[in-house]
Design a protein that fits this description.
Strand order of the largest sheet: 1-2
CATH architecture of the largest domain: Orthogonal Bundle
Oligomer: single chain
Distance between the termini: 7 Å
Radius of gyration: 24 Å
Number of helices: 13
CATH topology of the largest domain: MetI-like fold
Mean pLDDT: 83
Strand content: under 5%
Low-confidence stretches: none
């Protein structure tokens, strides 16, 4: 296991390095740079002044040389300065990262707590009324657009009923756990409803496939009870493909909650990435996208470790 983990960490470092260059190159190909923004803000700036600024900021050099300079600075702990927020990148990134981790954690816990048991129940009663009702709920969650659902939640609970805030993270001048918690209700519900359907469908399909295996019939023939067959034999094996989906969705929720965070004005990583790209804040966009890549790699690594825990027959050599 130690050798496997060391190999996977080395592979993750290589992937992260390749992704950093790819993201840096793609951002460098975007139209406009900080000097162009300075020129548009100051019409009196001469071409000579612009050339001097480009040389000062290093944007007149080839992409590979600029990337090498950025990489050396990043390895030394200098991730750059955010032009959009007028602060170091880490000072801007860490609060958004904390907000996203809270939103992501609550969403994952709720979606798994609802989706996995619902998928098991549907698999135990295939093609029954219960199965059809659960599938209808799952398909509705998958099909409803996140932006439409978010607007509907705001209209119903914030505008009509007035029981929950429409967006933000806390009341101005307010403090305390409950004040911040009520701002999380609508974004968490929106993301949970959007993801719980997928978890339910994957769990149902994996569980139905597992229940048809020979060892399940053998366990039943030996007189094992229903609970022991389902929880002790079928569930752990059915979770193996579902863990893969959860690991992939972990990275998606981390950076892909852009629509939800924008609608509810929630200052998380998704909204930060969008704002940095739209504002030509290249340093912030680069580091934020690399954090999203890192989270996806960590999620896949944790999924590989979970395989061996779920199925002792899986050994890493």
């Amino acid at each position: 296991m130690t050798r496997f983990l060391a190999t996977r960490v080395a592979q993750s470092v290589i992937v992260l390095a390749l992704m950093s260059f790819a993201i840096y190159a793609l951002i460098g190909l975007m139209p406009g740079d900080p000097i162009d923004l300075m020129i548009s803000a100051d019409p009196k700036m001469t071409p000579e002044d612009a050339a001097r600024l480009r040389a000062l900021y290093g944007v007149d050099k080839p992409v590979v040389e600029r990337y090498a300079n950025w990489l050396m600075a990043a390895l030394g702990g200098d991730l750059g300065y955010s032009r959009l927020y007028a602060a170091p990148v880490l000072d801007v990134l860490l609060p958004a990262l904390g907000n996203t981790l809270i939103l992501l954690g609550l969403t994952l816990v709720l979606s798994l707590a609802i989706g996995l048991p619902a998928g098991v129940v549907a698999a135990l009663r295939p093609y029954s009324r219960t199965d059809y009702a659960i599938n209808l709920f799952a398909f509705a969650g998958i099909s409803v657009p996140a932006f439409w659902l978010g607007l509907l939640l705001i209209i119903v609970f914030a505008v009509i009923l007035g029981v929950l805030p429409a967006g933000g993270t806390e009341t101005v001048g307010g403090a305390g756990f409950w004040d911040q918690a009520k701002y999380l209700v609508l974004p968490v519900v929106n993301l949970t409803l959007a993801s719980v359907g997928g978890h339910t469908r994957y769990m149902r399909a994996a569980m139905m496939e597992t229940l048809r295996q020979d060892y399940i019939r053998t366990a039943r023939a030996k007189g094992a009870g229903r609970a022991r067959v389902v929880l002790g034999h079928a569930l752990r094996n059915a979770m193996i493909p579902v863990v893969t989906i959860i690991a992939l969705q972990f990275g998606y929720l981390f950076s892909g909650a852009l629509i939800t965070e924008t609608i509810f004005a929630y200052p998380g990583m998704g909204k930060l990435i969008f704002d940095s790209i739209m504002g030509n804040d290249f340093n912030l966009a680069l580091v934020a996208l690399l954090f999203a890549t890192l989270v996806t790699l960590v999620g896949n690594l944790l999924a590989d470790v979970a395989y061996a825990w779920l199925d002792p027959r899986i050994a890493y050599r």
